[in-house]
Amino acid sequence: MTNKSYRPKLKLLSHSRPLVANRPSSISRKATRALIRAHHVLEKRKAKALAAGDLATAEALSQQSSAQGGIQNYQQASLIGQSNSRGGDSSKLLMEWLMPVLPGLKDKATKGQCLRMLEVGALSTTNTCSRSCAFEMTRIDLNSQAKGIEQQDFMDREPPADQGDTFDIISLSLVLNYVPDPVGRGEMLRRTVTFLRKGHDLEFAKDLFPSLFLVLPAPCVTNSRYLDEAKLSEIMESLGYAMVKRKLTNKLVYYLWVLNHDQIPKVKNFKKVEVKPGKSRNNFAIVLQ
């Protein structure tokens, strides 16, 4: 009999990401997308079953995922999808956006005043932002297998005790879309505010920090029933963010949102409400309660 009262805590990133050193054999773009999509569908269905206390269905979905290659195949597909030959490291664009202020950031670093970056769901310790010499990097992942990446769920991270524990920039690159439910996505965005530094003396870069680098699959914004860019902007602005950079490609959408702690309005509630009807649209949503 299903235990209806059971409500296990849902992890935001169900599995670890792979070691960069483990180079997978090449598979086609179509196969890569199919593997990632199938894994995401199963994880969302499993999360929904767990939230409802349906342990039997959750276990059946876990077995189905394992039969399809499970996390090993998903990790391989994810790593190939983020290789240079497939579009590469998303932080490369971030550093391009920061290029005008990079000399100033490096100068501060040489004086022991390095800006701090928190990379959530870190895949590599050698990506562009890590090699920039502009940031003191903190990298976390739910089940890290790489030295230099701390094993931690962002939602379990202790809130900063003081400003010394905060960050100047947070990276959520292809992380928010992996959170299995809309409420969890909203809570993740809300939580980023707590971890960003209040007050800056960066006159040369005051319009770029503190900030959130957010990367999503483009269809999350361009082809969702429940979210478009206007609604995403409303959600972010309700948290105190303003969009300063944006790039849309066929597959991904990149944003840089700057936080103004002094102008954070009263947070509104955003429900899962249809904004773009259509049978071919997906169900990606963000809910703030």
From TrEMBL:
GO cellular component terms given for this protein: nucleolus
Coiled-coil ranges per UniProt: none
Superkingdom per UniProt: Eukaryota
Keywords on record: Methyltransferase, S-adenosyl-L-methionine, Transferase
MF terms (GO), sorted A to Z: rRNA (adenine) methyltransferase activity
Entry-linked Pfam families: Bmt2
HAMAP family xref list: BMT2
Name the UniProt record assigns to this protein: 25S rRNA adenine-N(1) methyltransferase
Organism: Scytalidium lignicola (Hyphomycete)
Taxonomic path: Eukaryota, Fungi, Dikarya, Ascomycota, Pezizomycotina
